[in-house]
Amino acid sequence: MANTFLTPSVVAREALMVLENNLVMANLVHRDYSDEFVQVGDTVTIRKPAKFTAKNFAGAIVRQDASEGSVAVKIDRHRDVSFEVTSREMTLDIRDFSSQLIAPAMRAIAQAVVDHMDLTDSLFASVEIAGPGFLNFRLGAKWYGDVLAEIEAEGPLYGQSDEGRGQKVMVEFVSANPTGPMHMGNARGGVLGDTLANILRRDGCDTWKEFYVNDAGNQIHKFAVSIQARYLQLLLGEEKVPFPEDGYHGDDIRELAQAFYDLHGDQYRDVEEAQRLEALAAFGLERNIPKMQADLRRYGIEYDQWFFESSLHTSGYVAETVGLLTEKGWTYEKDGALWLNTTQLLKNKYLAEGKSQKQVDKLDLKDDVLRRANGFYTYFAADIAYHRNKLEVRGFDKSIDVWGADHHGHVARLQAALDGLGLDGSHRLVVVLMQLVNLLQDGQPVRMSKRSGKAIALHDLLDEVSVDAARYFFNSRSATSPVDFDLDLAVREDSENPVYYVQYAHARICTLIARLAGEGYAVPKAAEVQSELLSSQEETSLIRALARLPEEIHAAARDYDPSRINRYLVELAGEFHRFYSACRIKGETPALLAARLKLADSVRSVLANCLGLLGVTAPEKM
Q1: Beta-carbon contacts of residue 519 (< 8 Å; ≥ 6 apart)
Q2: Triad 164, 169, 170: Cα angle to 5°
Q3: CA–CA distance, 474 with 281 (Å, rounded to integer)
């Protein structure tokens, strides 16, 4: 796994160690204690049973400044040591037992520390006093060189970590009904789930990608009835066969009916309806599912498994799961149906999460049918069984489902049902709810009504824009925000198009490297680079941007928000373009040329790395 010596927390510890060494040298503190580091998430606490001299060092606050690349240390008056790391900055409080120090004394202490400062072999180039006791530690050439060396060593896996601790995580996404073409919501869910799984894997999880095929239940019956109506219309005339109002009206249903007629003629006209519907459903699924697989493959998505809902029914697993809920006392019968006591399960869940009894009693909670009076199991029953299969049978530590926001009311109910089975669904089932897609062209919305027959399907979209553009745009906002997909912008070849902007940065660097290689200048090894030459604001800012990637990947995994990588890519491309405009490479001294060429190549590597996480290509020429 990648080293972590470049992260803010490690920089803070380095500053602390340098500071402590110099406090001892300045005879401000006795080092007769041992540090105890306790880390929970991004918060680290350092407990210090220390003995201080009369010239007691009062404390410090350390902050990494994102714009200056410094670590500031402020004298304070408290006891413990702790710091909290965010993506932009970190704070470190060193606290002791003193209480009466005033500003002049604090600056005198700071001066004593600086007078004895030795930064040899540290990550810092200098330390300065500012204000009434601030010490500004400036990151030095060693740190900047280490960033380039880390990128070189890790290559396409730079930014990986073991934060996920090998957790076995399933990401289930798209899972569209196989009753028609996939729409824009499926397109967004596809790239969101695929990219999230990639990021979780890079963060140290053992990930699995799955598509749940809803090939059973009411929607399949409606699918068969819709094809039947079109088939009989071909045989008897449209005026003699009414089409069901709640059926699927798309042209794809007409095409399936025609294909069935071309194959079977009037063979199924006079058979029992149940037999005809069974044949039509099987015919439609046999053609639609391979089309879905082909469209998703074209979209750059490959699943580890396509799991069929029908297998849960034929194996008896749905009935077994409902039986377990009954054994545990969570079901009851009413009006010939079997009901889940969802109300009590949700009350238990909400109370465990910290809601008061009064708050819970005010909720409008309802129970759910698991088995209808006709003996058929509901979709909810099958969904409970499917998630039990994930967590219990196949042993996933966590299931992450990507759903449309219109399913938000289903989340807590499913989690509570799994809680009722003893599977801790409240923590092991995570649902990422995504908002709608607004498809725009010529500044006007494009309607996406699946049943009107006018919907733009995924395969239609990919005929209009590139896979790269589609994947990038659908992942450009967090799942909680709607996406405005501008078809005109997606095909533009200028800096207004973010995917073009990022890809152009990569291609520009590849062209630069190839041109210089033709002139005899190869990209050097990091160990050969004089990193102290990379000292301009544009150079150091670019290297700091490169160093942020491990944090960005972890934050994206932690927050289930892969759009962070999109934003990071745009920022990194922008930093490179500014560097390239301000810092000449060709024509400089050999040492400076080599250093800047290495920096450019490091940017190329990280751009390709992140584009790969998104499933977007990194072209060498544009």
Answers
A1: 586
A2: 155
A3: 32
Element (H, E) at 291: helix 273-298
For 463-519, the DSSP string reads HHS-HHHHHHHHTSS-TTS-EEEEHHHHT--STTSHHHHHHHHHHHHHHHHHHHHHT
Residue carrying structure tokens 């042993």: 395
**CB-CB contact of 607 with 193 (8 Å):** no
- Cβ pair 172, 402 in contact under 8 A: yes
User: One-letter amino acid identity for 517?
Assistant: A
Q: Collect all residues with Cβ–Cβ distance below 8 Å to 280 and sequence separation of at least 6.
A: 224, 227, 228, 231, 260, 268
Structure tokens at 540: 């150091």
Alpha carbons 428 and 105: distance in angstroms, whole number:
54
pLDDT along the chain (622 residues), means of 10: 52 64 52 40 38 35 40 37 29 32 57 76 79 72 93 96 95 96 93 98 98 95 97 96 93 96 96 97 97 97 98 97 98 98 98 96 96 96 98 98 95 98 98 94 71 68 94 97 94 94 98 97 97 96 94 96 98 97 95 98 98 98 92
CB 523, CB 601: distance < 8 Å? yes
SS (H, E, C) 361-397: HCCCCCCEEEECCCCCECHHHHHHHHHHHHHHHCCCC
Which is nearest to 251 in space by CA: 230, 279, 270, 234?
230
Quick one: angle between helices 590-614 and 141-154, nearest 10?
50
